[in-house]
Write a structure and sequence with these properties.
Structural class: mainly alpha
Largest sheet: none
Protein name: Sodium:proton antiporter
Shape: globular
Pfam families: Na_H_Exchanger (PF00999)
Keywords: Antiport, Cell membrane, Ion transport, Membrane, Transmembrane, Transmembrane helix, Transport
Membrane topology: Multi-pass membrane protein
Radius of gyration: 21 Å
Organism: Natrinema halophilum
Oligomer: single chain
Number of helices: 17
CATH topology: Na+/H+ antiporter like fold
């Protein structure tokens, strides 16, 4: 029986990897972000399709697998960010990750509160989750939509930073919901301790990796492989250490380790970068297909017109408002501001963390709130589904129409 189950699981993983590689191939051929094909593949093999993948397929290990996968994805995105580019990035980046994120958080919370009639706690929990865009969805878009460096950097930095802060903010709000007493100062402390733990762990891990690669003598032929494997191990170890102390601190640790290692003098940096990109491609395919397979259309359909109204407000009101306010006086043209307004898809972080929260709300006593859990999951997945399909699917076409792609790529 065990051998049979193991063979089934191996075949399933092989199928997911196959779907993922096929999605990347189709994305390259048709110049459409791979996210679109990955979502379609996930829905096809999930309970709403062939039923090959269900919530029980990976047992209780799914959240751990997704967590480690997200750490690798965030690490790779951070590793590619050059400090010089970030320093010289337009002021819009700073505004998007501070004031813009705050507007998105509050605006989403109020929208969910009044359109779906949820309590303030669940409404702002959803608001925190939906702040993040993230490298899991931005990177595939930028891979097929070549835009000016300032525009690309703005979208990448916003995605990486907001992925980290949104996840930590959501955890803080969720803990506040389940705490008997928590003062306003307690909210700030919970946030700072997780962010601080992640940053310190990331710096220390990066320092250890740097020391091993530059100060320890290895045979010349072994150095390139050691460099690739050590940096990947650093991403996973930094995540594991920080997350074992404070939940969601691991994402900040992976991002910090990636950015630090990407901006110091490492041997075989280009080889490391290419290896990280290949690994990320496979990991991205796995998590997107797996989580898309967990979409429950019944929870989404139960939201009705109010759910569609929430998505419309987020896409057509809040996102453009945040972008245009954040880019006042910037070097962005009007057409580029419109394009950035259009590119605000949500990705793996909201999906994975929302799934974790929903399970805890359904099973914990007290508090046990299965109705709120269903609405939480339905709202988050509806926003992810619509923004990914529309914004990722049409990003290249919109960029061409607006004339913001490079001249030789139109």
């Amino acid at each position: 029986m065990s051998i049979h189950v193991d063979l089934e699981l191996i075949a399933l993983i092989a199928a997911i990897v196959g779907f993922g590689v096929t999605a990347q191939f189709l994305a390259a051929k048709y110049r459409v972000p791979s996210v679109l094909f990955l979502i379609v593949a996930g829905v096809a093999v999930g309970p709403e399709g062939l039923g090959i993948i269900t919530a029980e397929t990976f047992g209780g290990a799914l959240s751990t697998i997704v967590g480690v996968s997200v750490a690798i994805i965030v690490f790779e995105g951070s590793f590619r960010l050059e400090a010089e580019i970030v320093r010289n990035a337009p002021r819009a980046v700073e505004l998007l990750i501070t004031g813009g994120a705050a507007i998105t958080f509050v605006g989403t919370g109020l929208t969910v509160r009044f359109l779906l009639g949820l309590g303030w706690d669940i409404a702002f929990l959803i608001g925190a989750l939906l702040v993040a865009t993230g490298p899991t969805v931005i990177t595939p878009i930028l891979a097929v939509v070549p835009v000016r460096e300032d525009v690309a950097t703005t979208l990448e930095v916003e995605g990486i930073v907001n992925d980290v802060t949104a996840a930590i903010l959501a955890i803080v709000i969720f803990k506040a919901m389940t705490a008997i007493e928590l003062s306003p100062r307690g909210y700030v402390f919970l946030f700072i301790e997780r962010l601080g733990m992640g940053i310190v762990t990331g710096f220390v891990t990066a320092g250890v990796v740097w020391y091993l690669l530059t100060q320890v003598d290895l045979p010349a032929q072994e150095v390139p492989q050691a460099a690739r494997l050590l940096t990947l191990a650093g991403a996973v170890i930094a995540f594991a250490i920080a997350d074992s102390v404070f939940s969601e601190a691991g994402i900040a640790a992976a991002a910090t380790a990636g950015f630090t290692l990407g901006n110091i003098d490492l041997p075989h940096r280009e080889s490391i970068l290419r290896f990280n990109q290949d690994v990320t491609l496979l990991v991205l395919s796995f998590v997107f297909i797996t989580l898309a397979a967990l979409l429950e259309f019944s929870a989404i359909l139960a939201l009705g017109g109010a759910g569609i109204a929430v998505v419309a407000v987020l896409m057509l009101v809040l996102r453009p408002l945040v972008v245009f306010v954040s880019t006042i006086g910037s070097r962005f043209s009007f057409r580029e501001r419109v394009f950035v307004s259009f590119v605000g898809p949500r990705g793996i972080i909201p999906a994975s963390v929302a799934t974790l929260f929903a399970i805890r709300l359904q099973t914990s006593t007290p508090p046990s709130d299965p109705a709120s859990a269903d609405i939480l999951l339905g709202t988050v997945f509806l926003v992810i589904l619509v923004t990914d399909v529309i914004e990722a699917g049409f990003a290249r076409r919109i960029a061409v129409v607006l004339g913001v792609t490079s001249a030789d790529d139109r």
